[in-house]
């Protein structure tokens, strides 16, 4: 990243935002970035990249992979944000949020990272074919409390990604084939979790969200962790909620919304003002 504006309200040019091409937005980390961009009210235009083209696009922009597969090879994914106002290129959703806050602190709905203690952990194992998680930043890094929360939330929801995998609204058979290759499975049908296994995973999700609901219940003015003040902690969870809405059957989504007194339904609805997206 190069260049830094002092305390500008907004960038002088629209940013370029790269998301995964689907019939509707469903990728969790682009959703986190989109919510942050809309939170900060910055102008941007979206480029939709088919899954098989992500590596080529990322390399062409000179943005290195931020994750690795189990064999140590690079895992190329999105989002990417290019800000021509500062000649900056970022390829990780957390880094994008930090950049937006540091470079445009006074823009939009306020501080993405207000000081707070975020008391939540999750350490269960992930499915073998779950996408690799971003490596957490070192202790003491900027907004470390949020970085740790991001890691735990990604792990918690990734443990239940089997509920979403076979319903991802990818745009083509080529994209499905690419996801099969990346996951190391034999066929698209291998992503499907059904029957008793699905019922068990749904119950596991309900219990996980019950633990997470305690964090969102501390300030009863809601719907955010800090009550009426949204922060990046809410956007982290929101990214997963927006993915789930796009990737599970509607009857299950309605069931999920009803759990724990509707606390995550209120969070999802409360984030709608930051959820606008462009075709």
How would you characterize this protein structure?
By secondary structure, the chain is an alpha+beta fold. The chain has one domain (15-274): 3-Layer(aba) Sandwich (Glutaredoxin). It contains nine helices and six strands; from the N terminus they run βαβαββββααααααα. A four-stranded mixed sheet has the order 2-1-5-6, sandwiched between helices. Strands 3-4 form a two-stranded antiparallel sheet. The longest helix has 22 residues, at 195-216. The protein is globular and about 55 Å long. The two termini are 28 Å apart. The model is unreliable at 1-8 (pLDDT under 50).
Write the topology of this structure:
Layout: E1 15-20, H1 28-39, E2 44-49, H2 54-61, E3 67-68, E4 74-75, E5 80-83, E6 88-90, H3 93-103, H4 144-158, H5 173-183, H6 195-216, H7 232-247, H8 250-258, H9 263-270
Parallel strand pairs: 1-2
Antiparallel strand pairs: 1-5, 3-4, 5-6
Helix pairs in contact: 1-3, 1-7, 4-7
């Amino acid at each position: 990243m190069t260049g830094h504006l002092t305390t500008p309200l907004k960038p002088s040019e629209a940013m370029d935002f790269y998301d995964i091409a689907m019939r509707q937005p469903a990728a969790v980390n682009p959703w986190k970035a989109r919510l942050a961009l809309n939170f900060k009210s910055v102008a941007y235009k979206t480029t939709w990249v088919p899954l098989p083209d992500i590596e080529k696009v990322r390399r062409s922009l000179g943005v290195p992979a931020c994750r690795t597969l189990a064999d140590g090879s690079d895992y190329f994914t999105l989002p990417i944000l290019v800000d021509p106002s500062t000649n900056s290129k970022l390829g990780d959703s957390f880094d994008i949020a930090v950049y937006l806050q540091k470079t445009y602190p006074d823009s939009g709905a306020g501080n993405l990272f207000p000081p707070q203690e975020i008391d939540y952990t999750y350490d269960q194992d992930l499915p073998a074919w779950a996408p690799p998680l971003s490596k957490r930043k070192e202790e003491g890094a900027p907004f470390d409390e949020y970085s740790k929360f991001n890691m735990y939330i990604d792990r918690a929801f990734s443990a239940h990604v089997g509920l979403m995998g076979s319903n991802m609204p990818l745009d083509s058979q080529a994209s499905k084939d690419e996801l099969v290759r990346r996951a190391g499975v034999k066929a698209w049908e291998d992503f499907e979790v059904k029957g008793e296994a699905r019922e068990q995973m749904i119950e596991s999700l309900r219990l996980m969200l019950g633990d997470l609901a305690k964090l969102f219940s501390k300030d009863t003015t809601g719907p955010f962790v800090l009550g009426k003040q949204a922060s990046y902690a809410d956007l982290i969870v929101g990214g997963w909620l927006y993915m789930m809405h796009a990737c599970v059957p509607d009857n299950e989504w309605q069931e999920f919304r009803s759990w724990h007194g509707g606390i995550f339904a209120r969070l999802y609805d409360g984030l709608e003002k930051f959820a606008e997206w462009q075709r």
